[in-house]
Write a structure and sequence with these properties.
This protein is of the alpha/beta class. The chain has ten helices and twelve strands. Strands 7-8-9-6-5-4-3-2-1-10-11-12 form a twelve-stranded mixed sheet. The longest helix is centred in the N-terminal third of the chain and has 13 residues. Bound molecules: S-adenosylmethionine and iron/sulfur cluster.
Length: 337
Amino acid sequence: MSVTVDLTREPLSDGFRRPITYLRVSVTDKCNLRCVYCMPELGLPWLPRDDILTYEEIHAVVRAAASVGVRSIRLTGGEPLVRRDLHRLVAAVASVPGIDDVALSTNGLLLEEQLPALVAAGLHRLNVSLDTLRPDRFEAIARRPGLERVMRGIDAALALGLHPLKLNCVVMRGSNDDEVVAFAELTRDRAVFVRFIEVMPVLENLEMHAGTYVSSNEILERVASHAALKPAPGPPGNGPARYFAFDGARGAVGVISPLSHDYCERCNRVRLTADGRLRLCLFGDYAVDLRGPLRAGASTEDLAGLLRASMLIKPERHHLRLGEASSRMRAFSEIGG
Ligand code: SAM
Ligand code: SF4
């Protein structure tokens, strides 16, 4: 079925006049790792299969989003590469008129084998999570082995010339904070953007959060005390990071500071959960169900109308502060992913 999309329509913007051009799509709640800051060791009460949007349903939401000005899609999760044939969804999304950027956030475990099909399907860019360069620590943080596989996936992405390649590192005191210089050093001769993320409090990590939080300023100071850093342009894209580089480096270091320097005033994004809710803010319970209308036969036009209406409840900012819990009931911070 071919759908005509009128790209000249008034683009989506929220009640605070922020243009909304970026949709993050969680394709699954499942994951093949159990990172200590994100998921309980035994996993979560996974969503029933029937509650999860099909690729066709996600495609329908993306068509509607594109019709009201969304230009960029990021597939995330959970771990998106555990969902079967993700390249089929990439191809569907990349072919939507108006969508000019399709990105993926992954933990990299299944990347090496899937990358050729994903790139052939139209994937433009990648974020890979990597919290340590040491195999023993990888297993302590992710509660599963796999560093070598992740590194092979990163090498495969570099070999394919996928650019920009962002590596996301959640920094935790007493766990991996002594590796920030080693991570920053990766940017000297590789065209990668290493992004240090402040760990955010979610229900899954409340006990450890306060003791492990390291501010982005402290991270930058530690890197800069090793070698001078200058402000640098970041990669094109939608990121909330601030970037810095060593003199002559091919890549750059970024910091994402949801707690110490939030970026709410520049927020351009909404999120589609795996079970079809449109979440308007990273934190808080601002969400609109799209699965019900989709399954009741909503047209692209109807869905576009729902997207517009949902803008009314997009809050001006999140109110997360150090030492407070998120009101989210489940993991998936997705902030840098
Ligand atoms: N599984 C994929 C991955 O790990 O890249 C995609 C989903 S994951 C939720 C997206 C990003 O959120 C990852 O970079 C992860 O490190 C980050 N993240 C998860 N929980 C976090 C937390 N509590 N604080 C900060 N970042 C977190
Ligand atoms: Fe899985 Fe990503 Fe969460 Fe780690 S951060 S448990 S890889 S979803």
